[in-house]
Write a sequence for this structure.
């Protein structure tokens, strides 16, 4: 860690001495006394109380006397949704990449009100994400149900490849992975009504690629008893809907049997603004498949980028039918706050599906006409309950750890234990043992727990007690996009003095522990700190109630956007503790 050297150069102008600064005069405020050298907090341990996350964004005006739900149905970093209905219950899973626990599992009775009931990867011995970048790990899980068992088939990128896990209860426990012998990504199991099972997946084409992004969709039979692939391995889509136009990144395949016909639905165009969903049809499960002349059946790439409240990058869909016979699609999309910038990652949206007949009288599903912008308010599905009020996902508040235990994430599979939680509610105390593994150290296992940033506006607050024993030790709030892009706000030690610091990392060119933005001698005792993010800017405050003061406002937070940081994840905001000598 390089905090001591970086901050020492930025201490109060004209001071080249190593002596502690007695106070820092903030414009418009009284001086703050420096913290004493001895604190009551235990060395190497950070204690957090009063921890809360709250969304502050409400952009939509809801209609009066009309029952609607709001898109996205799962706001924040919940990409690549897959859904299954079992009788009157719906279950949905998402990608989680190298965060742990992995593969969140949600339950709903009405497609609108969702509750996370567990994580399919919740034991360290199931999968090891060590040495993986945050955008590697588990990609695009698919959930299905067959003969009393729930199945998830998935890819662990840069792990061992493709695997299946099973559970009798979707809340878990899920089995250890069984690795299956196929390449590529995005496997999906199709259970035919003749008793056979098939796996369809993305991989390289049969032969050398003809252009960058040239991929194929393959199919092969699957033995669910032996959990092995059997029989011929066949390409059913080469390149995409029209290979003469060089389509890229055909992936995310799902097969459905509807009215005796087989429909193959795939994502096409990559996961950025050109993302789309396309559909094919066949009389046989293993093809040949014919593309719909009206493809794509979902995209936002042709619309004016300056439209109000845009949703972009829509695609990677899955279909589900309600008990009443209606069809719905869940899919990912993004909500930029400016240009192509979004911090919340790829989110889960939902729309009703209509069916259109072509000139030959063949029926095809349509999620959204390509010239229509994504609706953010949609009529409720039949039977959905809202308590008499429109369903609104904007009111997202999480208090403490226990109230949202399934939602808190760590970076990669846990290494040595560092987390202890005592009490509940307002009395809850979260303790992190400061580890010598830092965020910013490539592919480490830091002492960090966080929640997904769910909306363009958010507040995260906590009271931290921490005695940094060595220069560079730190604990506080971390807003993390990946190891190279983050914001930190909390207590650290510089030249023997405890400081309240804001630092920012904007790529590998910055120091591992970021560039200091501002700092001041820390107030004595536990310090209440608050981070507010609104789009691409951040504000950092300290103190509680009327005594709260702004340390720094209008800090650039666009380094938390995927467009700046790269990768496939969204911002995770939470608690962090580091000590070079725990």
């Amino acid at each position: 860690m390089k905090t001591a050297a970086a901050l020492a150069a930025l201490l109060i102008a004209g001071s080249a001495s190593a002596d502690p600064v007695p106070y820092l005069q903030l414009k418009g405020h009284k001086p703050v006394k420096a913290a004493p050298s001895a604190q009551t907090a235990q060395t190497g341990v950070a204690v957090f109380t009063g921890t809360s996350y709250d969304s502050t964004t409400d952009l939509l005006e809801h209609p009066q006397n009309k029952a609607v739900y709001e898109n996205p149905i799962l706001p924040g970093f919940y990409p690549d949704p897959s859904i299954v209905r079992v009788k009157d219950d719906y279950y949905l899973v998402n990608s989680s990449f190298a965060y742990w626990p992995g593969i969140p599992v949600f339950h709903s009775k009405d497609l609108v009100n969702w509750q996370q009931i567990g994580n399919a990867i919740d034991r360290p011995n199931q999968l090891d994400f060590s040495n993986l970048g945050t955008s590697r790990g588990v990609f695009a899980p698919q959930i299905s149900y067959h003969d009393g068992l729930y199945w998830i088939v998935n890819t662990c990128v840069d792990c061992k490849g493709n695997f299946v896990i099973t559970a009798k209860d979707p809340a878990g426990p899920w089995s250890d992975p069984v690795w299956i012998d196929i390449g590529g990504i995005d496997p999906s199991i199709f259970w035919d009504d003749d008793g056979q099972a098939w796996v369809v997946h993305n991989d390289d084409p049969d032969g050398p690629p003809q252009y960058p992004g040239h991929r194929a969709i393959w199919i092969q039979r699957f033995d669910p008893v032996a959990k092995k692939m059997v029989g011929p391995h066949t390409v059913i889509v080469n390149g995409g809907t029209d290979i003469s136009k060089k389509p890229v990144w055909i992936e995310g395949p799902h097969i459905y049997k509807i009215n005796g016909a087989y429909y193959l639905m795939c994502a096409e165009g990559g996961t950025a603004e050109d993302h789309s969903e396309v559909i094919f049809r066949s009389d046989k499960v293993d093809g040949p498949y014919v593309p719909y002349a009206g493809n794509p059946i979902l995209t936002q790439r042709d619309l004016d980028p300056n439209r109000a409240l845009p949703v972009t990058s829509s695609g990677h869909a899955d279909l589900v039918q309600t008990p009443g016979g209606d069809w719905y699609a869940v899919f990912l999309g993004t909500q930029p706050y400016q240009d192509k910038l979004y911090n919340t990652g790829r989110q889960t949206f939902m729309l009703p599906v209509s069916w259109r007949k072509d000139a030959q009288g063949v029926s095809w599903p349509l999620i959204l006409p390509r010239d229509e912008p994504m609706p953010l308010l949609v009529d409720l599905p039949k039977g959905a309950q809202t308590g008499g009020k429109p369903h609104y996902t904007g009111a997202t508040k999480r208090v403490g750890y226990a109230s949202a235990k399934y939602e808190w994430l760590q970076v990669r599979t846990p290494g040595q234990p560092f987390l202890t939680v005592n009490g509940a509610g307002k009395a809850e105390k979260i303790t992190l043992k400061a580890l010598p593994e830092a965020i910013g150290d490539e592919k480490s296992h830091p002492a960090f727990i966080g929640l997904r940033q769910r909306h363009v506006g958010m507040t995260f607050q906590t009271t931290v007690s921490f005695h940094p024993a060595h220069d560079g030790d730190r604990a506080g709030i971390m807003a993390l996009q990946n190891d190279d892009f983050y914001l930190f706000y909390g207590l650290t030690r510089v030249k023997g003095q405890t400081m309240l610091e804001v630092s920012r990392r904007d790529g590998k060119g910055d120091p591992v522990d970021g560039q200091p933005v501002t700092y001041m001698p820390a107030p004595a005792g536990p310090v209440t700190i608050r981070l507010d993010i609104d789009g691409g800017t951040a504000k950092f405050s300290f103190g509680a109630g009327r005594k709260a003061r702004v340390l720094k406002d209008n800090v650039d937070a666009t380094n938390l956007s995927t467009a700046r940081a790269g990768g496939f994840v969204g911002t995770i905001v939470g608690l962090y503790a580091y000590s070079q000598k725990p």
